[in-house]
Amino acid sequence: MPTDTSPRTPTGRASLAERVRVPDTALTREAAELVRDTTSELIYHHSCRVFWFGALQGQRRDLTFDPELLYVGALFHDLGLGRSFRSSGRRFEVDSADEARRFLRTHGVPEDSVRRVWTAIALHTTPGIPSFMEPEVALVTAGVEYDVLGIGYEDLSPADRAEVVALHPRPDFKRRILGAFTDGILPKPETTFGNVKADVLEHYVPGFERGDFVRTILDSPWPE
């Protein structure tokens, strides 16, 4: 059972911990330990905020979701940016999703739940699709978009934002997360074709040339 509890605020508003609780299970404890041990403090705290903001958006949208799956999806979503994955030749989202799948399978999680987490992570940088899928898929992306891009910023109260950031601080976050993105994908720039991470390399890597979808069609080996 969750251990996160706190009294109501002086204004009578239910506290953040009363409305959103980090699921306290062996699965989530081991997930948090693994991610904290294998990523930077920047990525760890960002991933925790993705859970909180995703859960708050889920409540706001009146979605029913599995908090364990949302938590694991949020914590693992950027794992593939790490050094051990930079020579994989695959999109970091896929590396992250595969690590989550391995972790969940070792804990005997049902395959449909594993699929949801894998999909949530794999699609978290593909806007316009996750919101039409299962709640856990939609809310990982919602949490990422809230924390990184500020999408839906006014959907949540200043008090809720402040509580989440107090739990998981974001000092100089904009600059530092862009640096983490650049470092994580620079060794495999071809994986940015057709996705938002091409913008990162275009801004921060001199000489980078993004893939051109139209040019790819016109230059294909087809004669017509």
From TrEMBL:
<feature type="domain" description="HD">
    <location>
        <begin position="44"/>
        <end position="130"/>
    </location>
</feature>
<dbReference type="Pfam" id="PF01966">
    <property type="entry name" value="HD"/>
</dbReference>
<dbReference type="InterPro" id="IPR006674">
    <property type="entry name" value="HD_domain"/>
</dbReference>
<protein>
    <submittedName>
        <fullName>Metal-dependent phosphohydrolase</fullName>
    </submittedName>
</protein>
<dbReference type="InterPro" id="IPR003607">
    <property type="entry name" value="HD/PDEase_dom"/>
</dbReference>
